[in-house]
Amino acid sequence: MVVAGMFHEFGHASALRYGGGRVRGMGAGFYLIYPAFFTDVTDSYRLGRWARVRTDLGGFYFYLIFALGLIGLHWITGQEFLLVVVLLINLDILYQLLPFVRLDGYWAFADITGIPDPLSQMGPFMRSMRGAGARAGTRLPKLKPWVKVAFIIYTTLTIPVLGFLLFLMITRLPRVLGGLWTALQHHATALATAHSQGALLTMAATLLQMMLLSLFALGITYVVYTLARRPLVAMWNWIRPARIGVAQPS
User: Fold this and answer.
1) Lowest mean per-residue pLDDT among 29-38, 49-58, 143-152
2) What rounded mean pLDDT belongs to the chain?
3) Torsion angle of alpha carbons 69, 72, 76, 79, nearest 10°?
4) Domain check: are 215 and 132 in the same one?
5) What span, in angstroms and rounded, lies between the C-alpha atoms of 160 and 154?
6) In degrees to the nearest 10, what's the CA dihedral of 154, 159, 164, 165?
7) pTM reported for the whole predicted model
8) Is residue 244 part of a domain?
9) In whole angstroms, how far apart are CA 224 and each of 165, 210, 231, 233?
10) Residues 140 and 121 sit within 8 Å (Cβ to Cβ)
11) Which one of 51, 128, 136, 195 has the lowest number of neighbouring Cβ atoms within 10 Å?
């Protein structure tokens, strides 16, 4: 799957080059709390709409090519685990097509409709629906009828889905952190055993797993903090006692 993920990114890069763009960089990093590969396709914004859409979906095209290669290897070798990887690739395509977070399907929706970064444009869109009641500069320009309908459907679906996912994240956070702490304790015991036996490879693998678990715990905590900070600050500003000043006589 790691190799398939790298091949997926070459699909974005190839589609951009095919359209006349230039890839600025490729690498790996963390998206939200998960490690991920990335391709900088910023140059696609100077291309036409369908060239941008092709760039958005180029990773899926290379994913399917990779899956066909695995099916061919299975036909030659008979190794059934290769078909499990094909299944995981198909599931990942479906996952990345979800337009609710900034994955490939999100950017494809943005380029098809012509709405840059739809999540950040929900507020201006809702204000534009109010018409003259919204201040100038705080609403979107007039949209094509089909784009408006698509954005209404997108907003209607996205807000409850993200709210439900946030609810699950917050309610399950103690259980997740408890499970991570138990796993870290287990790996710490395994690390001590490997150290006593002088098993350097096992020690390195255990340390790597402990590092990934720690990053996951820090990442999910940071995401919850980022999402909750603004509402908590607003609530505190609303409920804190007002400062009463003494008026001086004129």
Assistant:
1) 29-38
2) 86
3) 70
4) yes
5) 11
6) 70
7) 0.75
8) no
9) 11, 21, 12, 14
10) yes
11) 136
Other C-beta atoms lying within 10 Å of the C-beta of residue 107: 22
Tokens, residue 152:
């209404």
How high is the pLDDT of residue 247? 52
Q: Tell me, yes or no, whether 47 lies in a domain.
A: yes
For residue 34, the SS3 value is: strand
pLDDT band at residue 244 under the 50/70/90 scheme: very low
Question: Any idea which of 60-64, 111-115, 202-206, 246-250 has the lowest mean pLDDT?
Answer: 246-250
Specify whether 59 is located in the same domain as 16. Answer: yes
- Fill in the DSSP letter of residue 247: P
Instruction: Report the alpha-carbon distance of residue 146 to residue 85 in Å, rounded.
Output: 38
**Amino acid letter at 31?**
Y
> Do 84 and 131 sit in the same domain of this protein?
no
Return the residue matching tokens 């340390």: 207
Assigned domain for 248 exists: no
Mean pLDDT of all residues in 119-130: 81
For residue 243, being part of any structural domain is answered with no
